[in-house]
Design brief:
Layout lengths: L3 E7 L4 E7 L15 E3 L1 H9 L4 E7 L5 H12 L4 E4 L1 H7 L8 E5 L7 H4 L5 E6 L4 H14 L3 E5 L8 H7 L8 E4 L2 H10 L3 E5 L5 E2 L9 E6 L7 H5 L3 E4 L11 H18 L9
Parallel strand pairs: 4-5, 7-8, 7-12, 8-9, 10-12, 10-13, 11-13
Antiparallel strand pairs: 1-2, 3-6, 4-6
Helix pairs in contact: 1-2, 5-6, 5-9
Length: 280
């Protein structure tokens, strides 16, 4: 049906056609609700009581009292990271909803324990501070396709398992475990003792990724956006790899770099088995 309204006005001398455009019908704006964010003491407390998996908790600096302390205690009991942030950070996170000094982020998937993923694992991917959820989701998808057994992430300064991550992973999050660890450097040392070889990706690495024979079992460590690998994490790597660049841009997006290196590992590992590291 046309959106043009035609109205005729007749005067004693003439017939005039006035044409106006009809405004399209508009419904009241739908309120956008992020189901992955819980704001307020009561919703967060009830989420804990219901056994809902939470990724992390934000507490406003200066907030206190028995109800806030109860949230903190519940989070510690369930190993959910708690961060104390300025109140305006909570305002932004909750889209200015009334949060009473508490905001929680629910997880789209439960984290696995490290001991649950090590048996028979030939490839682990460790992320040293990847904070963009789209990058994390893309890496989960790529790592699963390349044959990784799990992804390890730190509990701080890293993207959590949000709905955005799940969507970017395109279903791979249902099949690839993600493990949250407290300290990346200590975790790498522990993996070395279990026989893993640690390969870090760094733009100033000494070895070209495509010329490297990966020893198994393998750990590939990828740095965060912008900063790359932390210096202490580099020191715990056995080999630092680099991807040669032809252009003036010195680095790639971390999810793109992950695909390049992980599929090179897959290609080489399918050609011939590499000697394993002796456990210490």
């Amino acid at each position: 049906m046309s959106n043009i309204l035609r109205t005729f006005y007749q005067s004693p001398l003439s017939l005039t056609l006035v044409t106006t455009k009809r405004e399209p019908h508009s419904s009241p704006p739908e309120t956008k609700r992020n189901t992955g964010i819980l704001a307020g003491v009561h919703p967060v407390r009830e989420a804990f009581r219901a056994g809902r998996t939470l990724d992390r908790i934000l507490i406003a600096r200066g907030a206190g009292g028995p109800r806030i302390q109860e949230i903190v205690d519940l989070a510690r009991e369930r190993s959910v990271p708690v961060r104390f942030e300025p109140r305006d950070a909570l305002d932004r996170a909750s889209n200015s909803a009334t949060h009473q000094g508490v905001v929680a982020f629910s997880a789209a998937q439960k984290y696995a324990g490290l001991d649950q993923v090590l048996e028979g694992a030939r490839l682990l991917v460790v992320l040293d501070g990847v904070e963009d959820p789209h990058n994390l989701g893309a890496i989960v998808r790529t790592a699963h396709a390349a044959g990784a057994a799990a992804i390890l992430v730190p509990d701080r300064r890293a993207a959590g398992l949000t709905e955005t991550v799940a969507k970017a992973a395109a279903g791979a999050l249902e099949h690839l475990p993600v493990v949250r660890v407290g300290n990346i450097s200590q975790t790498l040392e522990g993996l070395k003792k279990k026989g893993y070889w640690i390969y870090g990706l760094d733009e100033r690495g000494d070895h070209v990724y495509s010329e490297t024979d990966f020893a198994t079992p393998t750990v590939v460590v990828l740095g965060g956006e912008g900063l790359g690998l932390h210096q202490l994490v580099k020191k715990h790597c056995d080999v630092l790899l680099r991807i040669p660049m032809a252009g003036v841009i010195a680095s790639l997006n971390v999810s793109v770099a992950a695909g390049i290196v992980l599929f090179e590992w897959k290609r080489r590992s399918s050609l011939q088995p590499q000697p394993a590291r002796m456990k210490t």
